[in-house]
Amino acid sequence: MNEAVATMRPTPWPELERFLGGWFHEDWMLDYGEADDAVRAYAEEVRAPRVAQVVGELNDLLSRGLSEADLRNLVWWQLLGRYDPTADGLTMKEWLERVTRLLRERGGARGAESPDGR
Fold first, then answer.
1. Which of 70, 83, 2, 75 lies closest to 37 in space, CA to CA?
2. Closest Cα partner for 115 from 60, 32, 68, 56?
3. pLDDT reported for residue 36
4. What is the DSSP string of 28-47?
5. C-alpha–C-alpha distance, residues 56 and 115, integer Å
6. What's the CA gap between 48 and 90, in Å, rounded?
7. Is 76 exposed, middle or buried (0-12, 13-18, 19+ CB in 10 A)?
8. Average pLDDT, whole number, for the chain?
9. What is the residue extent of each domain of the chain?
10. Given phi > 0 = left and psi -120 to 50 = alpha, else beta, which region is 67?
11. Considering the entire predicted model, what is its pTM?
């Protein structure tokens, strides 16, 4: 694993960690069935400023140019997301981009510049 990924603790993406760890926990499929359903449920249940924070953190993560292996390790071990997008024919990068799009469509772009939505 990339040294930069291995040494990131605490995470620079705390809201993303809460999202992935909370909505993509070990039993997420029992709650939602499909990954997109979990993303939509998050966007509907959580206030817009927090969704916007996740969108901003996803943009930051994706802008770092990490390898696919590093993204998989980071999501699984550091951000506590227990979803394997390859089961749905996606790479981790493609899935994170999809999540970003879905959250934006659900209003997650509002307040993306500020964690409190101002």
1. 83
2. 56
3. 96
4. HHHHHSSHHHHHHHHHHHS-
5. 9
6. 27
7. middle
8. 86
9. 13-108
10. beta
11. 0.82
Contact 52, 108 (CB under 8 A): yes
Predicted confidence (pLDDT) per residue in 35-81, tens digit: 999 999 999 999 999 999 999 999 999 999 999 999 999 999 999 99
How big is the chain, counted in residues? 118
CA-to-CA dists, residue 30 to 24, 38, 55, 101, 112, angstroms = 10, 10, 25, 24, 31
The answer to whether residue 112 scores a pLDDT higher than 80 is: no
Q: Which of 91, 97, 87 is nearest to 72 (CA)?
A: 91
What is the Cα–Cα distance from 29 to 116, expressed in whole angstroms?
30
pLDDT of 11 reads 84
Question: How far apart are the C-alpha atoms of 43 and 79, rounded to whole Å?
Answer: 18
